[in-house]
């Protein structure tokens, strides 16, 4: 059997790429090993609650998020953040410290010491760093904002975004390129932000939304649009180059031939699939690690939780020694996540900090989360709903040298015309960013099929 494009991987990245190619008139076959599509975008209703097993939000400041919501007819199902979000919370000395929302929150709250707040204000006096140096987030923020801000604010923030990643190990140029660009252009992040605001430019940030039935709404709708283009329950054994295209080995299901192939799997699977056809790309993908992560969802009666839950959730710096990375106040964030009179909270466990905890059996993880919630948000009594999700492969870690790995992966098509990669290890792990990268991948594959040579770059964005 032959087709124009074979997309390997039925997560959001693969579904969005296949959708973009089909919209441009190409014959597409999408292959997915699992019976369920969507990858980590899993939303489950049970006992009147809605649990997000993986990602839970979309960033409206990424144009692709709004475009897919609109073009797929999902706008009537869209829901923005609830109006009960008034503070951000960080663990401080074993308790939750509430910090006002807004850019001046850390300067007006008591979470940071007076010296640390003065050090932040003096950022514009700090000398410019060495251009091109691949600093870690920790190194960059210590240099520009001081150690206390770096350890107590950026460390938990990075762990929250990158599934337990460490600010001391992740590349600032790879995950916060805007901060690096501001320093390079203006000599100061603070001055750069002031200039950009005066000029009306966009700054790093987010405006979050979801849909009434969760993030899986996106994957479910994309799969419905693709229809019989999808073959699930199929395992890809290998990819090889052939005259005029590629052959994909499906084991006992035979072979499939395509003029182009898009690998939209996790990085470690991409490394296996590329081993024979693009060894350089395979080596790059193999260098991207994704430690295990676990999600613990608990539902409580509202009267059994002392905390007002008036934020997105809370994060914990590694120095606090907590067993969880942080928590989302799920029922505060979006409507429909808990029945009337109840609340839902989700704990995140593992990552680089504590991969062994992410591998604990479900009952042990439930007890761990219950203990943390009792201590930090004052839960009492038994939860009325509980569920654990283990992710043996969590979020990719953008460590030092990641930009070079992305360059090698983005150039697969130059080494092997018609071979493309896409996924959450290119420009960021968020669903919205994956959609943006998928759009570029679809355009590049379309140009190849039309006989063009121009390939759009998959650059790292914030």
Report on the structure:
The chain is α/β, with parallel strands linked by helices. Helix content is 35%, strand content 21%. It contains 18 helices and 19 strands. α12 (279-286) runs antiparallel to α16 (402-410).
What is the compact description of this entry?
This protein is of the alpha/beta class and 462 residues long.
Structure characteristics:
7-stranded mixed β-sheet; 462 residues; alpha/beta
Write the layout of secondary structure elements.
Elements (H helix, E strand, L loop, with lengths): L1 E7 L3 H12 L4 E5 L10 E4 L2 E4 L5 E2 L3 H9 L6 E3 L6 E6 L2 E6 L4 H4 L5 H8 L15 H9 L1 H15 L10 H4 L1 H10 L2 H11 L8 E4 L4 H11 L3 E3 L5 E5 L2 E5 L5 E9 L3 H8 L4 H8 L6 E9 L9 E5 L10 E3 L1 H4 L8 E9 L4 H4 L3 H15 L8 E7 L10 H9 L1 H4 L3 E3 L9 H19 L13
- Rounded to the nearest angstrom, the radius of gyration is 22 Å
**Distinct helical segment count:** 18
Percent of residues in beta strands: 15-25%
Spans where pLDDT lies below 50 across 5 or more residues: 453-462
Structural class: alpha/beta
| Total beta strand runs | 19
Give the termini separation.
40 Å
Shape: globular
Mean pLDDT: 93
